[in-house]
């Protein structure tokens, strides 16, 4: 065996499978169809990139075993017994007529008895997956017809496995007597029954024990696969097809408590090996044979027999149903028909012509069924749309509950679709919808469903009282896709997410559930009730719930707001919440963020009690927190509420205006940044506004020092904003042995800037001397020299506007000056600073923004780290929260 050749074949197979599947999905065709066509293209019939081989056969066999395990896990034999006489009758007729019709047709065309029997068997199957998908796309999955077809398709699979066992024995042993056939059927049925009983009894206990004892992540997956292979070997030992054992193993695994996890962990394997099986079918097909007139004629004859047999089966369904729709739904052969064809070829029963004909029949029925089914469904809807609706609702309303079943009273106008759907979704938590009710929803015309005040209230109520069954009802009836497509698309994405281990979790909105059902969280419930617009937080939570796999939460929020008729103010509030959902939570998780300056900045950003409470509520429901984190978040809200209640900013601004002695200073107060007004007291605002007017010339500063006590003073420096302004001041303060404790910065649109510092000193500083030192520093920028051992941490979550940069470094004179000079050298602006020292280390924290006034980009971080003099291996390390 040429290992290199095998690896190359696998490479080509995997790439071809996924490219073909992606292309097929985009044109709304089954992925299996694309994979077969890809197999023909890369096989000997076309490009010749891959040839049939023993390795390919083994991989394909493993793929078909995994496929049957998956089918078995999705098959509930008890549910099959409950689908009723209709589904079982359709299944039996849909197996018998195609089987004998195929056998008769192949015999009449001159094929051997064994080949004719295999042809008949290949025509018996019905694809559950393809039919379910088409009904789902037509939002008719809940109709009586769809449920009959799906039940019959599952029964077809079970009957088909029995038939496969019989015809495989005939193929390997030649012609057999009636008694021998009866014996084979008895063995097959007995194996299915006994092994299913044994498996469903033993598997739950076995895998419960394995789950308890296993420590390795892959143990459960490996042993589940071994379990399936073991049952396949048992079937082979009983002279049955191995896939019969794989199906039984799947049924047994589906009954275990770990079935969800097993199914999800097996899914990646099926994504790899099952396409190999379908590619193998295409590779083994002879394209020239498929195009020969004799093969096309044979395929046409068998196709007609197969289609007629399934359509006739629909006529044994109840008269109250659309029998033609049921018959059309039974047509596609899909995966199981392909399994029959490949086994027939492997056993030497089919020649290339017969195999090609069967393959064409399977492909044709798979392709033609969706559009025909769609046309029939649209025809039924047109007929239903012309029926006269009742003018008035009966006493008690259109919807009622009768003996645990939700029934439709009368024939409502289709304008009632959305309110009735929300009402049923509310009731479906305790009762089952009747067939007549489901059929009415299935026949409604395709149209966008628009919310009004009544339906909006119904939706809020459903978020509070509904459960996964509610959302499943809205989904299968197509109401969710027509009313809130963002939610419908989120559910569709979840179904394809292999990391989602809980199927019911696909139909849950966890943030919304925590919001409307706060359990024992009294503070959360209280703050939520105090909101004037609780629906805004709910929609923000819903948008975040629907955000996954790279989808933008802001676009989802915008879509939801547009469909629900949210006001522009509400739209802006929801967008703000969605863009910064962890704002308060992140700030509270960092003790330094609870300082007065940071709280004032948050208050300035939030602006109202409503915004503060909404951000708090959303932060709580985002997920569990440690007790200290929750206490800090509660404390942060308590500090914010007094600041945002009423117009604190305007009150402080008015006090500062009255303290100003000139009109220019009053105007500067009027235009001072909101965050600055909140950060300092009114007297300081007035004092600093007067200091900055008139604006000093560039390179000059105006400076005042106000003693606080013997060792502490406030230094106010006013000037024109320029690169390195803050760095020059901090360097001058360091030269004068003034230790900066805190800093506040205000910048006006005309370029005026005031930097205010609280400094410690051993002796009273001279204002003139410090002013001269600042102006000298502005003219002669110093060199940056940051000590080794400096640690940087970047944080974008704790502030709505700025990137928080925390710096730890061995303390020394001039450290702050060097840090601010580094900021200036890369064009990073400093908006506030917090300076602390402990045990010989400086712990400095800065609020930074880029040249455009936004949070720092990756490039800004890299440049800053390099400017400070910290060696980093690449740009990626600078993006981390902690950079050393």
Written description of the protein model:
The chain has 884 residues and is α+β, with helices and mostly antiparallel strands. Helix content is 63%, strand content 9%. The protein has 41 helices and twelve strands. The strands form two sheets. Strands 4-5-7-6-10-11-9-8-12 form a nine-stranded antiparallel beta sheet, with helices on both faces. A three-stranded mixed beta sheet has the order 1-2-3. A hairpin with a 2-residue loop joins strand 10 (829-838) and strand 11 (841-849). The longest helix is centred in the first third of the chain and has 36 residues, at 178-213. It is elongated, with a radius of gyration of 37 Å. The two termini are 52 Å apart. 46% of the residues are buried. Mean pLDDT is 79; it is low at 498-503 and 872-884.
């Amino acid at each position: 065996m040429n290992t290199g050749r095998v690896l190359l074949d696998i490479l080509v197979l995997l790439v071809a499978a996924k490219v073909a599947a992606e292309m097929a999905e985009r044109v709304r065709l089954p992925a299996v169809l694309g994979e077969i066509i890809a197999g023909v293209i890369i096989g000997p019939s076309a490009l010749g990139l891959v040839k049939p081989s023993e390795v390919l056969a083994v991989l394909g066999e493993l793929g078909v075993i995994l496929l049957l395990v998956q089918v078995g896990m999705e098959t509930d034999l008890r549910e099959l017994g409950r689908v009723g006489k209709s589904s079982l009758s359709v299944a039996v007729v849909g197996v018998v007529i195609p089987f004998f019709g195929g056998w008769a047709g192949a015999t009449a065309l001159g094929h051997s008895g064994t080949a004719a029997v295999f042809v008949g068997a290949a025509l018996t199957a019905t694809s559950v997956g393809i039919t379910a998908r088409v009904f789902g796309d037509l939002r008719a999955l809940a109709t009586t017809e769809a449920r009959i077809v799906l039940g019959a398709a599952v029964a077809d699979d079970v009957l088909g496995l029995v038939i496969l066992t019989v015809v495989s024995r005939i193929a390997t042993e030649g012609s057999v007597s009636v008694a021998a056939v009866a014996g084979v059927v008895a063995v097959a049925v007995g194996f299915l029954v006994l092994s299913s009983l044994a498996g469903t009894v033993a598997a739950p206990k076995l895998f419960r024990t394995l789950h308890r004892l296993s420590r390795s992540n892959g143990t459960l997956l490996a042993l589940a696969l071994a379990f399936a292979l073991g049952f396949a070997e048992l079937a082979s030992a009983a002279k049955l097809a191995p896939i019969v054992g794989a199906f039984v193993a799947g049924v047994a695994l589906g009954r275990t408590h770990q079935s969800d996890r097993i199914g999800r962990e097996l899914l990646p394997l099926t994504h790899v090996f099952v396409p190999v099986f379908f590619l193998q079918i295409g590779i083994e097909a002879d394209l020239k044979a498929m195009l020969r007139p004799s093969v096309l004629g044979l395929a046409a004859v068998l196709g007609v027999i197969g289609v007629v047999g399934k359509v006739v089966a629909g006529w044994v369904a109840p008269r109250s149903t659309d029998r033609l729709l049921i018959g059309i739904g039974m047509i596609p052969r899909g995966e199981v028909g392909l399994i029959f064809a490949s086994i027939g070829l492997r056993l030497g029963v089919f020649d290339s012509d017969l195999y090609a004909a069967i393959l064409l029949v399977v492909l044709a029925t798979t392709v033609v069924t969706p559009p025909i089914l769609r046309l029939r469904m649209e025809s039924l809807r047109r007929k239903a749309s012309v029926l006269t609706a009742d003018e008035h609702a009966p006493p008690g309303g259109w919807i009622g509950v009768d003996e645990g079943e939700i029934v439709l009273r009368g024939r409502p106008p289709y304008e009632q679709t959305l309110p009735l759907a929300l009402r049923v979704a509310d009731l479906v938590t305790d009762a089952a919808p009747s067939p007549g009710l489901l059929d009415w929803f299935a026949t409604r015309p395709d149209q966008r469903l628009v919310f009004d005040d009544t339906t909006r209230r119904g939706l809020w109520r459903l978020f509070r009282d509904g459960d996964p069954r509610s959302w499943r009802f809205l989904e299968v009836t197509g109401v969710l896709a027509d009313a809130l497509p963002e939610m419908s698309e989120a559910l569709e994405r979840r179904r394809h997410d292999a990391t989602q281990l809980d199927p019911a979790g696909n139909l849950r909105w966890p943030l919304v559930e925590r919001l409307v059902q706060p359990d024992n969280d009294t503070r959360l419930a209280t703050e939520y009730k105090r909101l004037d617009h609780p629906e805004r937080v709910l929609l923000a939570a819903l948008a975040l719930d629907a955000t996954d796999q790279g989808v933008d939460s802001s676009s989802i929020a915008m879509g939801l707001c547009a469909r629900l008729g949210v006001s522009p103010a509400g739209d802006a509030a929801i967008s703000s919440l969605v863009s910064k959902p962890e704002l308060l939570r992140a700030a509270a998780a960092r003790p330094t963020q609870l300082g007065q300056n940071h709280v004032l900045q948050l208050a300035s950003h939030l602006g109202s009690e409503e915004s503060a409470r909404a951000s708090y509520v959303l932060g709580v429901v985002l997920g569990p927190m440690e007790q200290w984190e929750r206490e800090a978040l509660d404390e942060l809200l308590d500090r914010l509420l007094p600041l945002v209640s009423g117009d604190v900013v305007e009150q402080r601004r008015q006090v500062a205006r009255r303290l100003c002695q000139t009109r220019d200073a009053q105007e500067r107060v009027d235009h001072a940044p909101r965050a600055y007004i909140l950060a300092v007291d009114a007297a300081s605002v007035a004092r600093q506004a007067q200091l900055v007017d008139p604006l000093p010339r560039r390179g000059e500063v105006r400076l005042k020092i106000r003693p606080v006590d013997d060792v502490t003073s406030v230094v106010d420096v006013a000037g024109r904003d320029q690169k390195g302004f803050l760095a020059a001041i901090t360097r001058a303060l360091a030269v004068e042995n003034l230790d900066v404790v805190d800093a506040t910065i205000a910048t006006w649109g005309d370029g005026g800037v005031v930097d205010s510092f609280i400094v410690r000193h051993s002796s009273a500083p001279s204002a003139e001397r410090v002013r001269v030192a600042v102006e000298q520093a502005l003219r002669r920028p110093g060199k940056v020299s940051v000590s080794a051992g400096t640690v940087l941490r970047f944080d974008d979550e704790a502030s709505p506007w700025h990137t928080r940069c925390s710096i730890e470094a061995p303390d020394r004179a001039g450290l702050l000056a060097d840090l601010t000079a580094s900021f200036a050298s890369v064009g990073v602006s400093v908006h506030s600073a917090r300076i602390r020292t402990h045990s010989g280390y400086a712990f400095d924290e800065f609020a930074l923004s880029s040249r455009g006034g936004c949070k720092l980009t990756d490039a800004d971080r890299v440049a800053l780290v390099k400017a400070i003099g910290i060696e980093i291996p690449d740009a990626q390390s600078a993006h981390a929260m902690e950079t050393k």
